[in-house]
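Hi U.,

Before I forget, here's the chain from the pilot set. I'm dumping it here mostly so it's searchable later in email.
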Amino acid sequence: MKKWFSLAALTWLMLGSAAATAQTWPQKPIRIIVPYTVGGASDITARLMAERFAARMGQPVTVENRAGASGTIGTDVVAKAAADGYTLAFVASSHVVNKALFSKLGYDPIKNFAPITHTANVQLVMVVPATLGVNSVQEFIALARSKPGALSYASSGSGSNPQFFAEMFKQAAGLELAHVPYKGSTEAHTDLLAGRTQLMFDALASVSPHVKSGKLKLLAVAGPTRSGLLPETPTLAESGLPGVGATSWGALLAPAGTPKAVIDRLHQESVAALNNPEVKSRLGALGAEVVASTPEQLADLMQREETRYTKMVRDLQIKAD
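Structure:
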């Protein structure tokens, strides 16, 4: 009987502690580390969420960009941070591929993180310099086939979503294209706009200003269906590459071991931020479709996507630079 009372008391103490944590957290500024460059879809989404977090939580919420090495530099910081909810990571779907790319990765993309929410699905688009003189996917394919190995595609780094999407396209079309990796989308755009590279798959949010200015030409969306924002733009499948199509996704993560009460609060605030009409509208205008999943749904997605991307690394023979 005495042992039973002790266990009961311990249980009540733990429940009381969790409740107290939920009520008192946060007590200091929160930082969201985006392991990619400023201006990309992940960075934009993280900043929109940070604004809402700060307004609702009463603490400053900053976004810190730590790009490089396919997102592993910034992500490693979060993996090794204190599990207290004050350091978070905003990652893209390429996060789950790094274990397959880097044999000496200092963290496990799944085991070392606590899922908070699958934020949104992001439509990637296929763009080329306007000076290239092609107006469709088939015209690009014809040009590339006429100059085997002479054209190149840009990406925001080896193992990034832009590389995976370009490799899927290259393999499906049977093309020889050189890969030129950069330290983020913004840097990649410089050479793309100048015509030094001839193709890139990137988030609509990142390339939209250049498409609107006429410097880049939008040839297709990479998703399985057309975008509501670009109803006249065909998919890759509609452009003669049946079966080719995928979307990127974003996720908010905390270090593994973060108290459940804190994860629950972060999830609650994430859902509120993502479903805010203004945030939803701004993300929609950038080609992102809000999901706002549960932590459990995100955990399941990450497991499935790690399996899928690991197979792609092997099949497409993608290697880290």
